[in-house]
Amino acid sequence: GQERGLRPGTQDVAGAAATAAALREALAECEAEERRQSLLRDRLLREVLATVEDVRVNTVRPALPGHLSLSFPGAEGDSLIMLLDSLGIEAATGSACHSGVNRASEVLLAMGVPEREARGTVRFTLGPETSEKDVEYLAARLPGVVRRARAAGMA
């Protein structure tokens, strides 16, 4: 009941200072991690554009550091992610909130992406555990995956 019941008890000044210090450190780490993921994303994009024909980049700047959305016209998104999955590469055809839904992304359609291209879209998400070797592995295998998915055609 101290201070007329408004703030009972003694304030934890040491706890507040420790929390502030932890938040400063976490923010500094977060900024460095965003830079690292952005560099990996940009490297992946450069490699894909250099090795795969007819790619539409849907990721618009400014973008989340670890996200890259690409459309591969003539390939079905489900074929792409199944082929990628067989190589141990995790990807998605749309947003996480629409996983398991087999149709073109409403967001891409609203951005003006034609439906046939939107159906051939894959979203790659990089995270804290993603390494340069992971990006190299994906970049080396993606041209073959796209070739095979395009050969299978659209549903």
Automatic annotation (TrEMBL):
Its cofactor is pyridoxal 5'-phosphate. Residues 13-43 form a coiled coil. It holds the Pfam family Aminotran_5. It comes from Corynebacterium mastitidis. Keywords: Coiled coil. The keyword Coiled coil applies. InterPro entries: Aminotrans_V_dom (IPR000192), PyrdxlP-dep_Trfase (IPR015424), PyrdxlP-dep_Trfase_small (IPR015422). This is Cysteine desulfurase. Residues 5-138 form the Aminotransferase class V domain. It catalyses: (sulfur carrier)-H + L-cysteine = (sulfur carrier)-SH + L-alanine. GO terms for molecular function: cysteine desulfurase activity.
